[in-house]
Specification:
The protein is α/β, with parallel strands linked by helices. It has 6 helices and 6 strands, in the order βαβαββββαααα. The chain has a single domain (8-109, 154-175), classed as Maf protein. Bound molecules: inosine 5'-triphosphate.
Length: 176
């Protein structure tokens, strides 16, 4: 946990992402929606990481009194080497104006038809998950992870681990 004087700016108003930061750090972030600079539905690992980094930098620029900018981004990636499967993963980038770290949450297999549909374009994962779970705003709640695991893993859980990973180098003396 961080000292409660630390100010964290989070580049989104998404509730699952906000909750992840609160659980990971014990701090209520300043939430401010900023552009990710990437497509609404990132379909590669590189694009997803870039979206997280851009959000982290944009939010610290918008909230310069904060100690850290955090960018959280969800995206898909296709494993064309080992499993020939689509995976959903969640990234956190942490930026203090000098140092940049990225933490990646777990890779989670996604039904093949969903990956292929997203690859064709014209929709986003949240619309598909909303429809499958008969809800609105699944991306602010348990998300795809919650739907597929029956609530055993949530979107917030996955981002929590990514946030802890990205912030650890700023906290732990082992990285000095
Ligand atoms: O409000 P922001 O911060 O933009 O959050 P977001 O959920 O809309 O957007 P992301 O950029 O993190 O994710 C890219 C797309 O993938 C969707 N997505 C990612 N993970 C998801 C999950 O677990 N459940 C449902 N949709 C998900 C998301 O809603 C977007 O449509």
């Amino acid at each position: 946990m961080f000292d409660n004087k630390v100010r964290i700016a989070l580049g989104t108003n998404n509730q699952a992402k906000r909750a992840a930061v609160v659980v990971a750090t014990g701090i209520e972030p300043i939430c401010y929606s900023v552009p990710s600079g990437v497509s609404d539905q990132p379909m590669t690992e590189d694009e997803t990481i870039l979206g997280a980094i851009t959000r982290a930098k944009n939010v610290l620029a918008a909230e310069p009194e904060a100690d850290f900018g955090l960018g959280l981004e969800g995206g898909l990636t296709y494993d064309s080497i080992h499993t020939m499967q689509w995976y959903l993963f969640s990234v956190c980038a942490a930026w203090d104006g000098k140092r940049l770290y990225v933490g990646k949450g777990l890779y989670f297999p996604i039904p093949h038809e969903i990956g292929e549909k997203l690859l064709q374009g014209g929709t986003e994962l949240r619309h598909i998950i909303d429809e499958l779970s008969s809800t609105i705003g699944s991306n602010h709640k348990e998300g795809a992870y919650g739907l597929f695991t029956n609530g055993r893993i949530t979107r917030s859980d996955v981002f929590r681990d990514a946030v802890i990973a990205a912030l650890t180098p700023f906290q732990s003396t082992f990285y000095k």
